[in-house]
Amino acid sequence: MRPILSNREVVLGVTGSIAAYKACEIASRLSEFGARVTPVLTRAARELVGAATFEAITGRRAITELFAPYQTVSFRRSSSERTVNEEVEHIAIARRADLFAVAPATANILAKAAVGLADDWLSTALLATRAPVLFAPAMNSRMYSHPATQANVAALRARGCFFVGPESGRLACGEEGPGRMADPMTVIEAMVPLLGGTKELAGKRVLITSGGNREPIDPVRFIGNRSSGKMGRALALAALARGAIVTVVTGPADTPLPYGVEAVSVETAQQMADAVMARAETANIVIGAAAVADYRVENPASAKHKHSGKDLTLKLVENADILAAVGAAKRPGQIVVGFAAETESLVRNASAKLTGKHLDLIVANEVGTPDSGFGTDTVKACFVTGGDNVETLPLTTKDELASRLFDRIVSLLQ
Fold first, then answer.
1. What is d(CA 178, CA 189) in angstroms, rounded to the nearest whole number?
2. What are the E-state strand segments in 149-199?
3. Three-state SS for 2?
4. Mean pLDDT, the chain cut into blocks of 10 residues (414 residues total)
5. How far apart are CA 93 and CA 39, in angstroms?
6. What is the pLDDT of residue 77?
7. Which of 133, 136, 243, 393 has the most CB atoms in a 10 Å sphere around its CB?
8. Distance (Å, rounded) from C-alpha 106 to C-alpha 181?
9. In this structure, what DSSP letter does residue 306 have?
10. Cα-Cα-Cα-Cα dihedral of 306, 308, 310, 312, to 10°?
11. Contact in structure between 109 and 29 (CB atoms under 8 Å)
């Protein structure tokens, strides 16, 4: 996430919902990812959370009033002194912001924004900004479903504002229904396409495979691998940040996919192959990052194998190579990228796969070490594009690898 959010200016508006405490986590995570966060608390929000908390988290003064801070200056043509604002603050911050996020967003702020009412700092700055605006609604489900609120949401959407949530569930008032603010990480993930900064892939369709496979032995057992899905998630975020339309065909994985992708869940390699081939023709970019099972049990049992004191023999047969099939059917202008998880001879093995599968680029990544491979946040890898064209990367995060890979992909498209 850091390559996407680093040094981006985010104004975080916090309004008077009980979910205001969640904004502390949003501010903390954004700061952790390198964003520069200006917190804005309405009077109602300050009844629930303190400005000092946000200042400690972000390292910036929290804005709480429209006419603060002030400084005293003298005018030479008069002996009198006037108190004036240091700068027209809401205009200055509105101009430099890359994103305005209001989380939580109450029915009150949605109504103000919809009609253009400007009676405090946040509502005034929302009129002044031309940055993308993201609302994360949080309110009682009856308030959210009220025709007035729905009309305000529709008006703001029509005006180009973005929304994440609300989610359904048990609310603070004890009722069940829509109105709960989206999870803080979901809110941050919704910011990614708005903060990416580049739109080289706007309108392009990116198809990614992620996770591993489970090949059944019987109804309760399977053959699998250690894929966590972290690389697939990083790739999806990097594609979203560049404006792409992202579909991820994912096998079982520990890591959830980011907000904003179309997720297609499968288990076996054959199910993954069917899902990929049904979508590959319309994709501009196909990236095979899944740890696809090379073998499956020829005849899975229809009932659970019982412990009998005897050895169990399984016959394994080879699965089809999904990426090779995509590469063979590649159309002009389509980019197909593979991943080669190797324990030795990275470049030699990856080069053979690059040629054999008709790929444009392959990422050879080392697996089986404590700092590189399944389940780790870092990876040792190199980009191979044929011949002697090999770029070896230092140990890097999977997020950084994904960002650098898309730099390469954009160059290939051009």
1. 20
2. 162-163, 167-170, 176-180
3. helix
4. 88 95 96 94 94 93 74 40 47 88 97 94 92 96 94 97 88 76 95 84 95 93 89 95 96 91 96 96 95 92 85 91 94 92 76 90 80 77 82 88 94 88
5. 11
6. 40
7. 136
8. 10
9. P
10. 0
11. no
- All domains of the chain, ordered by start, with CATH? 2-195 (3.40.50.1950), 205-413 (3.40.50.10300)
Active site (catalytic) residues: 173
Beta-carbon contacts of 140 under 8 Å, excluding residues fewer than 6 positions away, are 171, 173, 175, 179
Token pair, residue 17, equals 């919902």
The position carrying tokens 């080879």 is 318
DSSP 63: B
**Helix, strand, coil tally for the chain in percent (to 5):** 35, 25, 40
Burial of 100 from C-beta contacts in 10 A (0-12 / 13-18 / 19+)? buried
Tokens representing residue 54 in the block: 């946000």
Cα(236)–Cα(258) distance, integer angstroms: 7
Distance CA 351, CA 383 (A): 10
Given the structure tokens 């191979």, which residue do they identify?
A: 384
**Beta strand pairing status for 316-318 and 295-297?**
antiparallel
Tell me how far apart the alpha carbons of residues 167 and 202 are, in angstroms, rounded to a whole number.
Answer: 28
The structure tokens listed for 367 are: 């697996």
Amino acid found at 409: I
How large is the angle between the packed helices 147-158 and 107-115, nearest 10 degrees?
A: 50
Predicted local distance difference test score (pLDDT) of residue 303 = 87
Pairwise CA distance, residues 238 & 233, whole Å: 9
HSE, side-chain direction, 13 A CA sphere, residue 25: 13
Question: What is the value of pTM for the model shown?
Answer: 0.86
Structure-block tokens of residue 58: 């972000």
Nearest-angstrom CA–CA distance, 366 and 340: 8
What are the b/e assignments for 168-196, b being 16+ CB within 10 Å?
A: eeebeeeeeebbbbbbbebbbbbbbbbbb
pLDDT of residue 213: 93
CB contact at 8 A, 364 and 382 = yes
Angle, helices 230-241/398-413, rounded to nearest 10 degrees: 50
DSSP letter assigned to residue 369: B
Beta carbons of 208 and 230 less than 8 angstroms apart? no
Residue 304 is given by DSSP the state: P
Q: Encoding tokens for residue 322?
A: 């999904």
HEC profile of 383-405: EECCCCCEEECCCEEHHHHHHHH
Q: Find where tokens 């109804």 sit.
A: 219
Contacts of 352 (CB under 8 A, 6+ apart): none
